[in-house]
Design a protein that fits this description.
globular; 4 strands; alpha+beta
Length: 108
């Protein structure tokens, strides 16, 4: 699993335009083979960042996505934003669910 995170800091006058571009491609991203999720978040901190979080089943799926028209539109949101974007790609080697909570709550 690869988690891609894009953090944008658009000025207030460009914020809505950036959100519109990201929302317009969200369905395309979710329909892309190998996509396990695509979420747009709006941070409430003083920077009011817009964050796009994508989850990909493989490196090949992510690479195909980055080469797609949808990703070109995501990059256009970066240009509209005006500030340098923050890209991050994390490879996840293991995942746990509620069993992790149960195990951690056991008395020592």
């Amino acid at each position: 699993m690869i988690i891609g995170t894009l953090r944008l800091l658009p000025p207030p006058q460009r914020r809505l335009q950036v959100l519109e571009v990201l929302r317009s491609v969200q369905g395309l991203v979710l329909a892309h083979p190998g996509c396990a999720g695509c979420t747009i978040l709006e941070e409430q901190d003083p920077e009011h960042a817009i964050v796009l979080v994508e989850r990909w089943e493989s490196d090949a799926a992510l690479t195909a996505h980055i080469r797609s028209e949808a990703y070109r539109r995501i990059l256009s949101a970066c240009e509209i934003s005006g500030a340098p974007p923050e890209f991050r790609f994390d490879e996840v080697s293991a995942s746990q669910g509620i069993e992790r909570v149960h195990r951690s709550r056991l008395p020592e």
